Each structure stands twice: as structure tokens, then as C-alpha cells.
Amino acid sequence: MSYHILANCSGCGACARICPTEAIAGEKKSLHVIDPRRCLECGACGKICPVAAVRDAFGIVCRRVKRSAWEKPRLDEKLCMSCGICIDACPANCLDWSEPVMKKEPHAYPLLREEKLCIGCGFCARECPVGAIAMTAPTTVSERGVDD
Amino acid sequence: MSGGYLGRILWVDLVAGACREEEVADEIYGQFLSGIGLAVRLLGDRIPPGADPLGPENVLAFVSGLLTGTGALFSGRWMVAGKSPLTGGWGDANCGGTLSPAIKRCGYDGIFFTGVSPRPVYLLVDDGRPELRDASHLWGKDALAAEEELIREAGGHARAAVIGPAGEKLSLIAGICNDRGRIAARSGLGAVMGAKRLKGLVLKGKRRIPVHHREEVQRLSRECNKWVQFQPPFVTGTMTAYVGTLMRLLPTQMAMDGLVYKLLLKKWGTVSMNQMSVEMGDAPIMNWKGTSADWGIGKSRTVNPDAFRVLERVKYHCYSCPLGCGGICATKGPFGEVHKPEYESVLALGGLCMNSDLESIITMNELLNRAGMDTISAGGTVAFAMECYEQGILSRDDLDGLDLRWGNSAAMIALIEKMIRREGVGDLLADGAKRAAEKIGRGAGACAIHAGGQELPMHDGRNDPGFNVHYSVEATPGRHTIGAQLYYEMFRLWKRIPSLPRPPLFYRKRRKYLADEEKAVMAAACSKFMNVANGAGLCMFGLFLGAERIPSFAWLNAAAGWRKSPEEYLAIGAAIQNRKQEFNRRQGIDARSLQVPDRVLGRPPQRRGANRGRTMDLEKMRSDYWEQFGWDREKGLPKDRP
């Protein structure tokens, strides 16, 4: 299963630029194509397409979401066990290890180092076995009660 | 295909420079799992009898585990396999870090190299697009520099495994490195890579790994993690030594619960055992002829676990590990930040050579990691040379002027540098103690402590006879990561397989040395279980939590969508063991020749120290073990093709 680009594609190339696996190819101003073998179903192409020309793996046409409203991972350090599964799962390479944090022992934790590269796919949260990562949109109210 | 594995492997023909993908049938995973099972199933028949391990007929496999990337904890081990140039039989080695998921993220369960390349090359897999590239500019570089350069050339965010100068120079004790100094060290497979002129592989993939029931795998992981995070305040570093002394003095032994070992591992890593092992008689001293009395607390104080803790800047976790037994240490020497040495390395370069200088141990460990040479075998070989020097078999002239008396750390560093460069006497010793003893003659063979050519690890079979059994019966002899009576107690397999014997909580120490059937059942269970673990990619330290706390079988069922019972999994482990033994038979290995030397068996018994008076009937224990697999009692040959 893979995402698919529909005939109303304007050929703007936004999807090809954001795709983390370079699965999308096409000439400027012409129909783009997704290589199903390389597609991770991360959904970035669907969220960024300005003309709603991307269909997801279930056949549903994706809705555009403003980039500033894309969800970002938020880590709960109390639950995190520094196993690195999320860092490995991230297709956009935007997670990295933090500087050591001294608790009982000095551990490093995952950190959203390249925030601009994050495509909000949620693979990190999905693969975290202990549920230490939550995907939250920047507009939602945080625990501290302020918009961030 | 249901989950856990990808059903596809990559064949790389180094002669033609061509890559080919191959689909692997579901039945093979069902019968042999992935990882080491997949490797032995595919290589067993493909490497012809009598193949030169350093020639084109040998095949080198890099395999990931079935559970890697599924959300199961402790599942970040990758394995390398092929015919060992060190032992001449089946060879495999195992390592952590982040390479194991990288293999699967590229879309493969394993990458298999055939032939010999006409020039130095490396393999780049960029998201399912494999390509061999020239590595002439990397040849000669140490493992850290080469890894850094390979990742840079791949455009960053990649994982790499490389050989250092030791592998390039075909040292038979060379390993394969990843993650800046972690090393799949045993079996000499770094030399196979060097002979193939394969400097490294660099993997850059982001494929999703299918999981049959991800939520169930994660639920099991959360349950397991509770045990891992349970960490009440425990003993101090200095107290570990006295705990070891107490264990030595008591006439009874307590069956070890791995949860206790977990507490030590989480706090200090494997170095927690440094002094405790010496005191209780688990650590061999002075090339296996010394005792705990020769390297007592006063001498081993320098390698106290706390001495490493103060250097530790941050804990190091392999992929998917909640424990983090590794560490990155800040050192004052020229190397800066280095991986914390492991117990095996500290003792092989410390007590085994009577060396109490911590700084030299860290230096040698890092030199060997960068060169891609096994610290266990290198330490064992240096200890061999030291004993030869002491006995006058090797003179100072033979040693290029080095004064190799016990504990001379400066001479040890100089010798290890020579071994890495294969210079002078280093060339003689770079292939391990057995080969060196054959070339030296003059009775040097009596000083070479090995099983089937592989130097023995830092666990004394006179303290736990189970180690001697596994050193002597495995297709990859001289390995400490398969079984022991202690491991059996910690695996607690009887919690999942009620037919397996449950050791009493307290027992007389002499019970360990009785060659009864129960010991054979325990040893066979360890071998089978570790084959399953190495098929799944699980770390042994996780398994020490005990079968009721680490759900290895349930993880496999949830990830792959199977409904196999623990007994069925052990049967898979037995099938893997059969294949390995069959491989050795085809390669002409006499299973009896893998027996450890008499000194290690306590023949004659030591007169003082923790293991005084200890000896064992290994021949009977070995035959009983062979019988557990249905092999011939006298020769250890599998009767029927598995």
C-alpha cells in the first residue's frame, strides 16, 4: 500500500521536496508520481499538497494542513528510557540525543533538534514502546496552560 | 509474510561487483527464525567443505534479528557469520549499537557477501539501492575514522560497520566495528572481511518494519520495562569486591536471580563484576595459572567499578535497550571520549596479565577497538607471550627488546601496537595464541589457553563448570555468551517450560561439579535458548532478567503472528545447533578437539585461591551434552541430517 497522486496535480513539486525518502518524481508543472516501494506512508505529501491531489493508502484524499499547524513530538522524560527507538524511527532525521541529563545516572534523551525538518508523521510516537512521546499541534494548550 | 521479518535478503557478489535481492520463504523463518538461524540455514550448505576461510568460497553474512525494530526491548543485536579463520569451523559474532535496525530499515533481514573483490570496496545501501564503491582512500584508516568518513560520504544519518587495520592485515583475531568502537569481535570474522577487501558497509534506509501485532509487542515491552527500571539503592563499588569474597568463603551457593545482576549492570555496566569476579574465582588470573590470591583486592582496587563511574559522561544504550549498561567515558589521554571498557576487556588486559594500571587498560582497549581487534583474544595472546617470557621460551630478543614481565603495562601497550601493525613479534602474535605457539614450538603450546584456536573469555570454568562445557562443545568454541550454570539460573526457563529442572535456592558448591544428567539438560537448554535469542536479535543481558520477566517467546509470537509454544522455540534453537554442528562436521572439525586445556579444567587442581581443589569430568559432561541433541556420544557427530 502507498500514497498516490491524482490527476489534478499541478506539478508544483512541494511533495517531492518534503518526501523523506525521495519517493516522488515528476517534472515541474506536470503530474508527479509516487514510487510505492519507497513510500513510507508518512503523509507529508498529503498535508503539504496545495491542490488536494494526494490520496492516502485507504483511498481517502488528504486535506492540506498549514505547515505551522503540523503536529510535533513532545517527550515525557519520566517515561522515556533512552532506548533510541524513536530516533531510529524518524524518517526525517530530526531527532537526536540531548546533552546528558543527570538524574540517578547521566542519561541522554531524544530531542527535536531539527524542528523545521519534522514532518509530523508520528512514527516516533507510534514506535515508542512506553508511550513517552505524544504528538501535539503547536496551537493546542500545553500542560502549562499557555499556547506555544 | 506476517511480521517481524522482511522476507528479503541481499547478496553481494564482490567478484563481479553486483548486488542481487532474494526473497526468502516464510517457512525458513518459521523453522530457523531470522538472525543467526537465517545465516546458518543459508550458509550451511553454501560454503563448501574445505573452503579457505580467507578465500573466495567463504560467505560473510550480516544479519539482523527477528524482533529488531518491532518495539521489543533489548532487540538491537546484529550478528555476523561465516566460516571462522580462527577455528576453521562455524564462526559468528554478535554486537549491539544501532546497526541491527539499519539492516532492516534498508529492506533486508541480512546482507551476504560472496567472493573476493579485486580492490578495496565498501557497500552503500541508500534506501534499497545497493552499490559497491571504491574504498582505496579508506584502506589503512582506523575503525573510527573509517566509520566517520563512510557516514559522511553517505550524506550523514547513516549507520556503518567497518574493519580496522587488524582486519585489513588479516589478523585472525580481528573483528568488525560499529558505533565508534563497539565490536563484533569473536571468531576472527574481521579477517574474512579484510580478505574480501571489504572495508565496510554503510546503511541508509527508512523502511517500516512490519509487525503483526504492534500493540501487543509494546504492551509486553512496558511490562518488561517495569522490571528494568526497578532500581533500589544497592551496594557501592567497593562493596562488590567484598560480596565476591563472601561468595568465595561460603560453602554454599545461592542460585543467582538475574534481577540482582541487572541492578549492577544498570548502575555500572559489566565492569561491576571486575573485582567481584576475581574474588569469587570467576576471573582467570595470570594466564589461568594464578588465583584470586595472586591478584587480590589490593591489586584489583584500581579497576573498582567506581573508578569507571567517575569517568562516565553519559550512559550508552544500544538500540531498543532500556538498561544502558554502556557508557561514554571522558579520558585525559589522547583519545578523549571513548566507550567504557567492558568487563571482559578489563580482565583480559588486567588480571589475566597481572596488570593493575587502569589508564593502560583504557588505552589498550581503545587501541584495539580502533584497530578492530578482539580484546579477549588480544589479552589472551599477550598473557600467553608473558608466560612464555617468564618460562624462558621467548627471550627479550625474541620480543624485540620488550621486557614482558607480568604486569608491565608499558610493554603490553607496545606489544599490542606491534600486533596491530603486524610488526616484528607482533606479526607472530597477531593470529592468536594457538598459531603463535605452533610457530614458536619449544613447549609454548602448554601456555596457549584456547578452545579450538579461540582464546578463552574471562569466566573460569573451575568456578562454574558450565563455562567449560560450553567453551568445549559449541560449534564456535571458547565463547562465554551461550551458557553456564549461572546463566541457566538467571534465564529461569523453568518458569515457561516446566519440564526443565529448577535449581534449589541454596546448594553445596560441590554440586556444580557433579557430571549428572541435569547438567547436560541445563547446558543444552542454554544453547538452544541463546540460538533463539540470536535469531530474535535479543541481548543476553536482557534475558538475565528471567523468563517470567522478559517475554522473549511472547514477543516473537506477537511480532510474527505465530502461536508457537516455548518448547517449539527451543526446538528451533536445537535445529540451529544441529546445523552449526553439521557445518563443523562438513568442514572436518573433530568435535573432541575443541576441549579446553587441562589447566582450565583443574588438571591438576589449583592449590590455593577460590578454585583450589576444583576439577571436573568434562568428558562425561560433554558426552551427556551431545546426547541431549541426539548426537554420537563419543565423537559429537549429528546422527541424522536435521
Poorly predicted regions of chain B:
none
What's the mean pLDDT score of chain A? 92
Beta-strand content of chain A = 15-25%
- Find the CATH superfamily of the largest domain in chain B: Aldehyde ferredoxin oxidoreductase, N-terminal domain
Task: Please outline the helices and strands.
The complex is a heterodimer of chains A (148) and B (642).
Chain A: E1 4-5, H1 14-18, E2 24-25, E3 33-34, H2 44-48, E4 54-55, E5 72-75, H3 85-89, E6 95-97, E7 101-102, E8 106-107, E9 110-112, H4 123-127, E10 133-136
Antiparallel strand pairs in A: 1-4, 2-3, 5-10, 6-9, 7-8
Chain B: E1 8-13, E2 18-23, H1 26-32, H2 35-43, E3 60-64, E4 78-83, E5 90-95, H3 99-105, E6 110-114, E7 121-126, E8 129-134, H4 143-153, E9 159-162, H5 165-168, E10 176-178, E11 182-184, H6 189-195, E12 198-204, H7 214-229, H8 237-249, E13 252-254, H9 258-268, H10 274-280, H11 297-300, H12 305-309, E14 312-316, E15 326-330, E16 337-339, H13 343-349, H14 358-371, H15 375-390, H16 409-421, H17 425-429, H18 433-440, E17 450-451, E18 454-455, H19 465-473, H20 485-491, E19 506-508, H21 517-536, H22 540-543, H23 552-560, H24 566-586, H25 598-601, H26 618-628
Parallel strand pairs in B: 1-6, 7-12
Antiparallel strand pairs in B: 1-2, 3-4, 3-6, 4-5, 7-8, 9-10, 9-12, 10-11, 13-19, 14-15, 15-16, 17-18
